[in-house]
C-alpha cells in the first residue's frame, strides 16, 4: 500500500489578530508571518514587510488628499520594496486598510504585554 | 494556562526596541549627523577667517559627532530594529563673529544633551533598562562636550577680544581638554 505522503504545501494554522468589516489579519506562528485578507486577496507578509507596509500606509497624507480639490484619479498605489505584494486602492479603501493595520498593531502590543505578564515576569 | 493558547510574540522575538524608542533613536541619529555637519561648517568658517586652531578643534568635533551617530545606528541594528540613514539639510555656513561660532556650538551640545534625556525618559516609562544602560555612555560624553564648549566661551571672557585677544583665544581653544575623574 502506498504510504501517505506529506502534503505538498504545509498546512498553516492561522490565528486572527484583528478584523474589521473590510478585512482580517491573521498570524501564523509556525511561519512567523502574517496573512492579510484585504481587497479581495490573501497576501503573506513577514516581519520586515509588515513594518514596511505599515510605514507606507501611515505615510499617506489622507487628510491632505481629502481636502485637495484638484481633480485626479482616486487611486493610491501602496508599493513595498522587495515584497511580492502591492495594493492599488481607492482613498476609502486606504482608510480601511489603515484602520485594519492600526487595530492589528494594538493587538500585537497587547499580546506582547500578555506574554510579559504571563511568562516573562511570572516564571 | 497552556502556552500554546496564546499566539507568539513575533514582534518582540525580532526586535528588542519598542517602535517609540526606535523612532526616538532614529531622530537622535539624524540630530548627531546634523551636529557633525554643523561642526564641519564651523571648521570651514574658522579656517577661512584665520582661526586655524579652532578649525582643527571643530574638525575633531565633527568626527566625534559622526562616531556618536554610528554608535546609535549600530545599536538600533544590533537590537533588530531599522536604522535610518538621515537626510541632512539646513546647515548654516556663515557666522557673524568668532564668538558666535562658539555660542552656537554650546547651544548645539545643550540641545543634544536634552534630546538624549528625552530618550532616557521614554525608556524609564517603558522600563527599557537595556537602552538606558546604553545611553549612559552618551551622558558621560555629553558632560565632556558641554564642558569643552563652555570652557571655549569662557576664554572670550578671561582673555578678552581686544588687541591680539582673538589670536590668543584661538591658540587656547586647541588646548581645551576634559579629564575629570568624577
Written description of the protein model:
The complex is a heterodimer of chains A (123) and B (182). Chain A has 123 residues and is of the alpha+beta class. Chain A has one domain. Chain A has helices spanning 47-59, 62-67, 91-121; strands spanning 15-19, 23-28, 33-38, 41-45, 76-79, 86-89. A 4-stranded antiparallel β-sheet of chain A has the order 1-2-3-4. Chain A has a two-stranded antiparallel sheet with strand order 5-6. In chain A, strand 5 and strand 6 (86-89) form a beta hairpin. Chain A is globular and about 60 Å long. The model of chain A has no long low-confidence stretch (mean pLDDT 89). With 182 residues, chain B is an all-alpha fold. Helices cover 72% and strands 0% of the residues of chain B. Chain B is built from 6 helices and no strands. Chain B has helices spanning 10-14, 19-48, 52-78, 98-126, 129-159, 165-173. In chain B, helix 5 (129-159) runs antiparallel to helix 6. Chain B is elongated, with a radius of gyration of 20 Å. The mean pLDDT of chain B is 94. Chains A and B meet through helix 3 of A and helix 1 of B.
Question: Summary?
Answer:
The complex is a heterodimer of chains A (about 120) and B (about 180). In chain A, about 40% of the residues lie in helices and about 25% in strands.
List the helices and strands and how they pair.
The complex is a heterodimer of chains A (123) and B (182).
Chain A: E1 15-19, E2 23-28, E3 33-38, E4 41-45, H1 47-59, H2 62-67, E5 76-79, E6 86-89, H3 91-121
Antiparallel strand pairs in A: 1-2, 2-3, 3-4, 5-6
Chain B: H1 10-14, H2 19-48, H3 52-78, H4 98-126, H5 129-159, H6 165-173
Helix pairs in contact in B: 2-3, 2-4, 3-6, 4-5, 5-6
Amino acid at each position: 500500500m502506498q504510504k501517505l505522503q506529506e502534503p505538498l504545501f504545509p498546512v498553516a494554522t492561522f490565528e486572527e489578530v484583528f478584523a474589521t468589516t473590510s478585512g482580517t489579519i491573521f498570524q501564523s506562528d509556525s511561519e512567523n508571518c502574517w496573512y492579510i485578507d484585504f481587497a479581495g486577496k490573501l497576501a503573506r507578509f513577514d516581519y520586515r514587510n509588515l513594518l514596511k507596509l505599515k510605514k507606507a500606509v501611515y505615510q499617506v497624507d489622507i487628510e491632505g488628499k481629502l481636502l485637495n480639490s484638484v481633480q485626479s484619479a482616486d487611486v493610491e498605489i501602496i508599493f513595498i520594496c522587495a515584497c511580492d505584494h502591492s495594493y492599488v486602492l481607492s482613498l476609502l479603501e486606504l482608510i480601511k486598510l489603515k484602520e485594519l493595520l492600526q487595530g492589528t498593531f494594538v493587538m500585537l502590543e497587547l499580546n506582547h504585554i500578555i506574554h510579559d505578564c504571563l511568562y516573562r515576569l511570572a516564571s | 494556562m497552556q502556552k500554546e493558547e496564546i499566539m507568539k510574540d513575533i514582534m518582540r522575538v525580532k526586535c528588542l526596541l519598542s517602535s517609540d524608542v526606535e523612532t526616538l533613536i532614529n531622530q537622535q541619529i539624524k540630530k548627531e549627523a546634523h551636529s557633525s555637519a554643523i561642526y564641519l561648517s564651523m571648521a570651514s568658517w574658522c579656517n577661512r577667517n584665520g582661526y586655524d586652531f579652532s578649525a582643527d578643534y571643530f574638525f575633531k568635533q565633527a568626527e566625534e559627532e559622526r562616531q556618536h551617530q554610528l554608535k546609535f545606528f549600530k545599536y538600533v541594528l544590533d537590537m533588530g530594529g531599522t536604522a535610518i540613514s538621515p537626510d541632512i539639510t539646513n546647515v548654516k555656513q556663515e557666522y557673524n563673529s568668532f564668538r558666535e561660532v562658539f555660542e552656537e556650538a554650546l547651544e548645539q551640545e545643550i540641545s543634544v544633551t536634552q534630546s538624549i534625556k528625552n530618550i532616557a525618559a521614554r525608556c524609564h516609562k517603558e522600563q527599557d533598562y537595556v537602552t538606558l544602560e546604553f545611553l549612559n555612555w552618551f551622558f558621560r560624553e555629553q558632560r565632556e562636550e558641554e564642558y569643552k564648549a563652555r570652557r571655549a566661551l569662557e576664554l572670550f571672557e578671561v582673555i578678552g577680544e581686544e588687541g591680539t585677544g582673538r589670536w590668543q583665544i584661538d591658540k587656547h581653544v586647541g588646548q581645551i581638554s576634559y579629564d575629570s575623574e568624577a
